[in-house]
Records
---
Amino acid sequence: MTGTPRSLAEIVPADLYAFARRSAITLRTAVTGGTLGRHRSRQTGHGVDFFDHRAYAPGDDPRFLDWRAIGRRDRLVVRRTEAERSVTLVLLVDASGGMAYGEGVTKFDAVRALACTLAILAVRGGDRFVAFAGRDDAIHPLIPRPRGGMAAVADLAAALEALVPAGTCPWLDLLDRGAPTLGRGEQIVVALSDFLDPGAGADDPEEHERAVHRGFSRLARRHHVAIVRCLHDDETRFDFPGDERIRFVDLRGVRPERELDVARVRRTYLEALSAHLERVDATCRDGGIHLADARVPGSLLPCLRTLLARLAGLVDRPATGVDR
Amino acid sequence: MNLLAPWMLLAGALAAAAFTVLHLRGRRRVRTVPFAAVRFLPPPSEPKTRRRRVEDRWLLAARVALALALAFAAARPHVEADTHLAVYGTPHDAIVVLDGSASTAAVLGPGTVRDAIALRARELVDALPAGSRVGLAFTDPERPGLEPTEDFATVRERIDAWRDAPPRPVARALGEAVAEAAALVPAGSSRPLVLYPIGDHTAGGVPSVPRAAGTTAVLPDAVPDAPPDVRQAWFASVRWTPDPAVEPGAVRIEAELRRMGSWPGDRLPVAFEVEGREIARTEAAFADDRSTVVFTHVLDDPTTPVAATLRIVADDALPADDTHTLWLQADERVDVLVVDGAPSELRPHDEVFYLVTALGVAKREPALEVTVQTPNAFAQRLRDDDGALGRTDVLVLANVPAPDPAVASAVAQAVDRGMGLWITAGDHVLPADYNRTFGPLLPLALRDAKVTGTLPGRAEAKAEHLAPPNLDDPLLSGAADLDLSTTTTHRLLLLEPTPDAEVDTALTFQSGAPALLSAQRGRGRVALLTTTLDRDWTDLPLQPGFVALCEAVVRNLARGRGGGHAGRRIRPGAPRPLSGTAPWTVELPDGSRRTVTAGDEDGAAVFDETWQLGAYEVRDAEQRVVDRFSVVFDPAESDLRPQPAPARDPGLEAGVTEIPRSAPLAGRVLELAAWLLLFEAALRVLPGIGAPWRRRR
């Protein structure tokens, strides 16, 4: 990368930035574990929302006596509230070569903007976040330990700015590396990628891809897992000029190049892509993984709204997005 | 082998280079696109890629070869042939006479006959012995010749300019141009003069060339004959006539077609068009090389002439003669103005009673429209309107006193423009007055009247009787079985014998004195009957053949105007006299207009820009249509079959050198280019054509 590193305001589009300043990440279910924060918890404790009453026992803090209930019941009761917990947001960013696709705005630009926006949302909600990137078949810890505050977001932006997409993303290693940072309670894991070729570079790509899906599904049993699938219009529409012959070179440097007549292979390509996307959709649906699609070029706000809505349980089913 | 235009090879090399560059630039390029979803793309088929590379190479080769072949053909390669060029062996003045007659526009093989003639002319110029001078003459009368010069480059340029000029159907034959070509040599030249007419083998080409032009030697050279299989069809003749029996306003058009060469079938489509719109189409059936087609067409307005065109709908060697345009009019009539010199209240005593009655019963078409006037009324009409005779086809002066000079002058002008004049004798015809008034208009000068018959004191036996008529005479053309043998004539006008006078005699008395004679005067004809049209001097009106005689004379005199008011047909380049008041506006077949002002001192105007084939319309100063005519192709030029040419003058043989002639190769090269073009197209259209080559490798 050349030139002066961009600021956070330059990396995150204005509409996303404005949205992040007035929104927060809300989870559909109460969390367990974790430290004090703003997310609902299955435990009682210091909080605002009413949980239940119970009979006063010696040793209870007299500040929790509910005098109105005592008047109605004529016995001492204490008011219990839901404990509010904080969560850790784990950002797993795909920095493989495939994310470099796009003229002007690349898929990685979009992913970088979304990662920073999610980090802002987490920090503003009192949560902390960690971030890892997979590039060149290696893990790049961007924010290796949970951190909060806008300084951490700025560090994340700087780290992502310094990252040039290349090679393949080691998804299984990334999941392994991200998991220990999750701690005991429920946390939020957001993976940002095109997920077009998560098995690229492995000896058995198809099996490797299935293993990655299993890893996400396993993670989703204990945590809130979301996938941001970022695709370029060229990939979903395959709208190259019909009379052109194109030599396609794999950006990840793994697949053999293909020299083809666009018009002849368009239908085959779209069918194969559609089948793949439906497999990913099924994996997410079956594994309880939240899925949000981002399109490049275009506004990322709909994707972010979808993602937050899914995490908050406002939208049930993920949507697929192949233009056929 | 030599090249007549070697610089074209350079052009060919440039074209080949351009083809190569364009091919390489225009070849389908492969764009490289880094892509993230390569795993979903199907694997490419390797053989297709290799085959396209093969096709590209063949395509480039075909295109380059095509460019080189075309350039080679344009360089006009020639090889030595087994024919020879006859050239006078010693230095001399040569005049090359180029045949530009209509038949030279015929396309034979790779080019036209005109191209072949130009090529021969250049060969001839190149073959002339050193020290010679060469000039040029053309059959086109409007193309100026070139006096003999030693500047051969100029001569070649003039030959090329003649070749590249648009062909004009020139009516003049090559022989006529040869006769005038010797005049190009300045008087007093001491060099021998040889004329080299070069033309085709048709009637207007080399066969029309005399063996010698006076004392000048003539060495004609004919380009190769039309191949036996060359296709050529043309209109040999087209006749038309009103056909009221079918329907009022109907006209019947009958065309005789000829054709030569090998045609695929025995039929040729012929279209009939009126004012540019096809009305009908039929097929001419050829049992041998002749056929006849007939169209019947009903005109919307029988009184208004319309331009109609017959068209042979087929490709042949000479497209110009595939059309024949003519003016049609359903009620076409012959206007006959009879000036009655001795009118009478009693009709049988009237001078023209028998003539008008005879013309009134004429059955043939076109109809005869007879108008009778007294001499005074006729003279007054001419004084009031100079163009009064513009629509009169035949004027009959029946026993009319000699008119005043102004009237006589108007009559003479009308005759010169085509009107027929019939003068009949009588008591009012005074020979001295007539000779003074009409002078050269008369076929022969008049002498006194001679009394021969049964006047009191005369014997019946001395009356004059008519000899058998001369049916070949122009006045009696078309008349059959004229029974005038018992005619008895008592009195007749004697004529001044003039030995050199060109006079046609249709009827004579048994004594040898002419009874009916005529002479051509300008475009019109003047007839003279030396006796009366009534019974005063003769019983001719009572003869069974009188009706046929009158009709034949009137119709044949009317031929000068085409027999009626529908347009006449003339050959290309023929002058067309204009009548009416100046200026005239002539509308040409292509829609353009020409204005003709008054012509010579006599006021006679002629329109001579008649090179376009098709219909012409002439309007006078008052925008009245005063003439319509059409220019049609000369059928003699259409027949491309070789005519026998005169043998070379034996007296020339000693001085003539035979030089081997070269034959053009352009045709074969062009044929090769056509195959290359086909191959190139196949490479582009058929994707698998390179596959066998690939397998062999």
Note: The interface with chain B takes residues 97-101, 107, 194, 196-197, 200, 205, 232, 234-235, 240, 244-252, 255-260, 265, 268-269, 272-273, 276 of chain A (CB under 8 Å).
---
Amino acid sequence: MAAERQEKVMLKPGKAERVGSAINIAVLCILTFITLYPFAYVVFASFSDPVAFMKHEGMLLSPVSFSLKAYRQVFTNPTIYVGYANTIFYVAVGTLVNILMTTTAAYVLSRKQLLLRRPILLMFIFTMYFNGGLIPNYLLIQKLGLINNRLSLIIPVAVSTYNLLIMISGFESIPVALEESARIDGANDLTILFRVIFPLAKPTIMVIMLYYAVGHWNSWFNAMIYLRDSAKMPLQIFLRDILTRNQMGAMNAGSDIEDIGITIKYATIIVSTLPILCIYPFIQKHFVKGVMIGAVKE
Amino acid sequence: MKVKKIKVHKNSFGYRLRKDLIRNKGLYLMLLPVIMYYLVFCYYPMYGAQIAFKDFVPKLGIEGSPFVGFKHFEAFFDSIYFARLIRNTLSINFFCLIFAFPAPIFLAVMLNEVRQIRFKKLVQTISYLPHFISTVVIAGMILEFTSTDGFITTIATWFGLPKQNLMYNPDLFQPIYVLSEIWQGIGWGSIIYIAGIAGINGELYEAARIDGAGKIKQIFHVTLPGIKPLIVTMFILKVGNMMSLGFEKIILLYNSSIYETSDVISTYVYRKGLVDMNYSFSTAVGLFNSVINLILLCIANKLSKKYTESSLW
């Protein structure tokens, strides 16, 4: 049906339609350029010579006198390795906890026979729209003794209600018959979850896993308020220090002390974002699938 | 013997519940960790929010601190920052709703008209990208680009603005913030609308064309009405998150010389609470914020139920 419609449109486009379509494509090209350019600028700047870059003004279409100085500087800074290692730890352990909690909860809450299913779901959903606030949360973490503890970046964010809802609708779409035959063979709920549901819901679980992992990789606020030792800080905190450190100096324009590190800032952005940029083209269709599953739910 | 007695109340909720709990013991046990998580990390802080009505002293704890009623709320309403915070919070949200909310809908409609599948895929892939970059990096990029020598500042000088650090000009914070929100969210936000448009029955377009409707008319009479319920739902969700949105980004972007236009309730809660250690006052402001948020969500939901039939609950 849709194909037929497309064909017709393609066969006899009127003049007005052709012009309209050309304008449409032109606008989309401009939008794409605007989206991409800031990243391109960061890449060009990071490969520029620091001194030449300082003298340059306005847009960049290629690096100003190509140089790897900034990257050499970034990699001689030991804190970036500490940050990287910490972030990898938080992403790995955090995502594992997330997936265990989310899948078990989603499995139980996708069982329609449970009498308390709706009240429990409502209790979870309510927290999406109302929370105790910053300070009560902080006091709780303090009370639990998690301040300056690595677990403070993992346990308080163990479940995301939004992701849980997506997972539930993913599990609900699995035919009950498969599960019943496993039950007749004597499998219990845990076995069914890990042996039957997991393989069948793999796409959904992958999406949710990626959501959680990117969330851990990018998060910084909890680290800022809960952690104290720089040895435990994730990459984003080091990044924040490097990227916003000189903001006060920038007030008195003309002081050139702050400019020395500018290409280093750009190189640091690239180094810390590279893992996401590298896997992005491969995973973006999964992300999109996640939004679709969420949309079906609504 | 006992069984007989219970049988009488077979349909009572208590009986059914007990039976349900026994039969599904394993399932409920599996759910226990997650229920504990919600109780401890979501509901206990709500209980702890009572310090908004107390003068919190760490030694005395949440329950033991002296009750002071609405003292902190009154102090907030009387403070010189109250009007400024409300004004900034409302205006940033208002501009986001007017400009950043419809942007993904435009993009989705435009993408839907593209027949070159590979071009469409490419545009989509690129447009999602900013969504995955961390707030820290986005904020760092904005600060750098809008600094005195940044390229955005250079572009701004073409339009007659003086060469300056844009982020130290109070008049420019809100426009820059809203533009950056559009830039970050337009692609990701469009996914759901693209899916919605794909679900519209093709015969409707056919019928519209037979009636002589051009592309533009088809968009206004078929495409947009087709995704209206979706737009309404997204709008309600957006309103329901209004008061807390963008908080991390603003903290990274703003500085004391532009508080006048950039300080919003949630950033004020952060500064009062975790920088000035004024726990009770900060919690009171935060609670005020959450309650307003909840009220807005209810109003939006009610209005949409009345006028469009689609609602969250």
Note: Chain A has two domains: 2-71, 77-297.
